[in-house]
Design a protein that fits this description.
By secondary structure, the chain is α/β, with parallel strands linked by helices. It has 8 helices and 7 strands, in the order αααβββαβαβαββαα. The chain folds into 2 domains: 71 residues, no CATH class; 162 residues, Glutaredoxin (3-Layer(aba) Sandwich), CATH 3.40.30. Strand 3, helix 4 and strand 4 form a beta-alpha-beta unit.
Amino acid sequence: MLHFYLKIMVVFLLSCAAVAQDDAHALFSYNIHKNIKTYIKEANAAYERGDDKLGKKLFDSLIHNSLIGTKFDNFSFHRINKRRLFLNKIKKPVYLLTYSSWCLTSNGEISALNKLAKKYGKNIQIVVVFWNRKEEIKKIASQFNDPIEVCYAHETYNKDDYLVSTLKHTLGIPTTFLIDEGMNLIDIRRGGINLGDKMSYDQSFSLNYERFYEGISPLITNEDGFKNKEGISK
């Protein structure tokens, strides 16, 4: 009888291990680290040849064939004067933007994001993460409205190394992640808008508003507010 129960226990433990392995393989972090080296090698070769079209095709292939549909990791980020923010504690879709202080922001960009956060904050959570130390982002963080969670992470900080290597050192800066309320990754968008030196504030605001609006749209569970878009005003 004891031998029988031992056999059952072994089968149970093996089943649990298989489930845990399947869960790990479903994670965004597993799939990005599994595929990123091949992508970087092939994309770099394409761009060195001047084949931008192939470079974009390779990026789209990585995103759509390997990453979309994965389960986004429960990463946590430092917040200024608050406890760490854990993604799985946010019970609504997340629009996660990653920046570094030296690449942000174009004129009107923060204002456009603030307006959208105020308008759709009940439906989604906007999270902005800077790959910087705390003292480097205090000033710029104060420009974001309260509905936006402004966070930071740096490889020299405790617990941030894997986070930085997974989100920053793979797809670059800036990158945006669209995550639904079940922590499923539904899209990744890279880059911003190259506005040039002569772009007025009004033009910049409008272009950035449209860009952010387009990104936020798929995350809204109740899309009624998107059927008849109101005019853009500052």
